[in-house]
Design brief:
By secondary structure, the chain is mostly helical. The protein contains 28 helices and no strands. α21 runs antiparallel to α22, α24 packs antiparallel against α25 and α25 packs antiparallel against α26. The longest helix is centred in the first third of the chain and has 28 residues. The chain is globular and about 85 Å long. It comes from Adhaeribacter terreus. InterPro entries: Memb_transporter_dom, YccS_N. It is a multi-pass membrane protein.
Length: about 725
């Protein structure tokens, strides 16, 4: 019960809920104001403009939000103006639908925010084409829509002005929360009764979520001057916490072993269950940090984990004494990793109470701009994608043809007054990949049917207008709060909200619910059929690209390890950048594999082999992190050839494998030996040579396994 209460608190303080409140206020307020003057129709037009601009109000740097909303206002004005006149001729309107659907869909080449701008343009076009406007009314209508968009933009920017750190706090809090969930999944590997294959599926799926959240934090922190400069105490706390969080995540990744062997050797001792309990305690404290950021409160006094750590050490030592024939070296290494985790955790907790001078000293000189991708806005991106080798081009052509077909269907069979829902359903459901369209199709249908039933119950059993308005308000907040978190829940809220709205407009008979369901089913059927038969994009066709990128990232990550072993001083930002690229490409590959598994069976090419490739690369990157994190902070020295050769061989095998997939893997040139006067070939006294050698040999073995499974995929 306590866990469920905490999850509710997380949601109420989350960015999702605050976005839902902000969008609801921005969309609803114009209508509420103008209804007081008996001009509800004007308020609804303003609300439509606010709704369209809110589509581009996605998380990110404030300057990017501002620019996107400015462009969106200009776009919706022009689209409303053109559509208002073109709609008078059905043939011209059909041509506009094809042209705008293609052009706005092609904006996807410029990233998610530009794609949102295209969606806003299409929404305005669809909602204007059925609006019975006289020619003299078109300019005023377009100006009102734009005024609503400007109102929303100013309101949104005002909120970010008075709460400049709120978005970053919430984004970082969500990221920490997902890392804590990842750590809980990691604890399952130390429980004797869990299925290891299922544990790997969970950990790989959660890795996708963590990667997305880390990218979101990088977008907010590393593309905003106020955080990069870190000139304020809140900015420094956010920046330092995220840097430590990524390092902590690496430590989690580094705690990877042969869990089947661990269970066989130590399952009866109880030490693995103790390790799992300690990992869960660390995850709980991470969740406390996440909640402190999201709720903007001081962190409660954390419990000291040192007694549990000492108790675990004694237990591990006892296992070594009782089981003399079995080495407890792996358990000791796990203990070291757990100490590193608690060290990072302690640092993150201390930032809440640190003085500004201490925070300033801790702020490092990392080149943060290298850790975020820079989106180019060049017409050559459009030109380069104007061919059927581009998934975005195929998608754009598909959207244009399907929307034209949907428009023709609504004209031939005008069974209702709201047939534009067919086109709205199509543009919402139709995605570049079949798997995404299939998922969105299912969510839209289920959400619409369930939401219609709820809406009918509200209209029948709660005829009071005040009560209905409260339901409307609740459903609006739910719609906009869940639109990025859980689409099916968002649609369940959206459908009663639309039905209640039509009821207020005097069109509230129950046939509206039936009509909405029919329109949704028609639009869903058209979109799903088009994604299957019309220029389909299958994940299996794109999979080689993700495999290549994964191999390339691991080769570059291995090269950093090779440089360390060769005695070259590796810059910390270079190492972290290589590490980040591995995690990003691993998440991309895992996501592509999951999408492929939702496609028809005949399109699931070598699914078992690809799954094994995903798991092996996860294991490989974990062992690279294990070895590199243990060496990175040591003085530079040249290690003997038997330590370097396994890494060099691994690089060679993975490079050869990537070339077989028609990729040229670019790696750093081998390091030149450092000055002998500065280096030593003597191994440190406290260094476990056997452990390092076994880790490097295992890296070579996993690389060989990846080469074999890659050959099997290519065959």
């Amino acid at each position: 019960m306590k866990k469920q209460a905490r999850e509710i608190q997380y949601f109420l303080f989350s960015q999702y809920f605050s976005d839902g409140l902000r969008i609801t206020l921005g969309v609803l307020l114009p209508s509420l104001i103008f209804v007081q003057f008996g001009r509800l129709e004007l308020g609804l037009i303003l609300s439509l403009g606010a709704l369209c601009v809110s589509i581009t109000d996605s998380p990110g740097p404030v300057v990017h939000k501002r620019n996107a909303m400015l462009l969106c206002n200009a776009t919706i004005f022009l689209v409303a103006l053109i559509t208002g006149f073109v709609r008078l001729n059905p043939y011209l309107l059909g041509a506009e639908i094809m042209l705008f659907c293609f052009g706005f869909s092609m904006l996807m080449v410029y990233g998610p925010r530009a794609a949102a701008l295209g969606t806003a343009g299409l929404v305005v076009m669809i909602l204007t084409m059925d609006n019975a406007l006289k020619p003299l009314e078109v300019l005023g209508y377009s100006a009102l829509i734009t005024a609503g968009g400007v109102w929303y933009m100013l309101m949104s920017l005002f909120f970010f002005q008075i709460l400049p750190y709120r978005q970053a706090q919430q984004t970082l809090g969500e990221c920490i929360h997902e890392v804590a969930r990842f750590l809980r999944y990691k604890a399952e590997f130390y429980r004797a009764y869990t299925n290891l294959d299922e544990d790997y599926r969970k950990i790989v799926a959660q890795q996708i979520v963590v990667s997305e959240k880390q990218d979101a934090v990088r977008e907010v922190l590393f593309k905003s001057r106020q955080y990069i400069k870190a000139s304020t105490t809140p900015g420094r706390i956010l920046l330092l916490t995220f840097v430590d969080l990524v390092d902590l995540y690496e430590q989690i990744m580094a705690t990877h072993y042969d869990y089947a062997a661990l269970r066989e050797k130590f399952g009866k001792t109880g030490v693995l269950s103790e390790i799992a309990r300690l990992i869960l305690q660390i995850a709980d404290q991470l969740d406390d940090i996440a909640f402190a950021f999201e709720s903007n409160i001081r962190l409660r006094l954390p419990s000291n984990l040192n007694p549990q750590m000492e108790q675990l050490k004694l237990h591990i030592d006892k296992v070594g004494e009782d089981e003399k024939e079995t080495s407890n070296l792996a358990l000791k290494k796990i203990l070291v990793n757990l100490r590193n985790l608690t060290h990072r955790l302690h640092d993150m907790q201390q930032y809440f109470n640190a003085t500004p001078s201490d925070l300033e000293k801790k702020t490092g000189p990392l080149e943060y701009s290298r850790f975020v991708s820079q989106q180019e806005y060049d017409l050559k991106l459009i030109r380069n994608n104007l061919n059927f080798n581009s998934a975005i081009f195929k998608h754009s052509v598909r959207v244009a043809l399907v929307c034209l077909f949907g428009y023709i269907v609504t004209k031939i069979a005008p069974y209702g007054h709201h047939s534009y829902w067919v086109l709205l359903t199509i543009i919402v459901i139709l995605k570049p990949a079949f798997s995404l369209t299939k998922q969105r199709n299912y969510e839209r249908i289920i959400g619409t049917i369930a939401g219609s039933a709820i809406g009918i119950l509200i209209l029948v059993f709660f005829p009071n207008r005040t009560v209905q308005f409260l339901f409307l308000l609740f459903c609006m907040v739910g719609t906009y709060s869940f639109q990025r978190r859980n689409y099916v829940v968002s649609v369940i809220f959206m459908t009663p909200f639309v039905l209640i709205l039509f009821n207020f407009l005097g069109d509230g008979n129950l046939n509206i619910a039936q009509e909405r369901i029919i329109d949704t089913l028609i639009g869903a059927a058209i979109a799903f059929s088009a994604s299957y038969f019309l220029f389909p994009s299958w994940e299996s066709e794109q999979l080689k690209k993700f495999l290549r990128e994964m191999l390339t990232a691991n080769v570059n990550y291995l090269q950093k390890l090779s440089d360390i072993l060769a005695g070259k001083k590796v810059k910390i930002e270079d190492y972290k950048l290589a590490r980040k690229n591995v995690y990003v490409h691993s998440a991309n590959l895992s996501a592509a594999f999951q999408r492929m598994m939702s496609e028809p069976k005949r399109k699931q090419i070598k699914s078992k082999e690809v799954h094994k490739f995903v798991v092996l690369n996860h294991i490989l990157s974990s062992f690279i992190a294990t070895a590199a994190s243990g060496l990175l902070n040591r003085p530079a020295q040249v290690y003997p050839p038997e330590y370097v050769k396994p890494v060099k061989r691994s690089c060679a095998m993975l490079t050869e494998t990537a070339k077989k997939m028609d990729a040229s893997v670019i790696t750093n040139q081998p390091s030149k030996p450092a000055d002998d006067s500065e280096l030593t070939t003597t191994m440190p006294a406290d260094f476990d040579e056997h452990l390092l050698k076994s880790q490097l040999d295992f890296i070579q073995k996993v690389s060989a396994d990846i080469r074999k499974i890659s050959d099997s995929i290519l065959s």
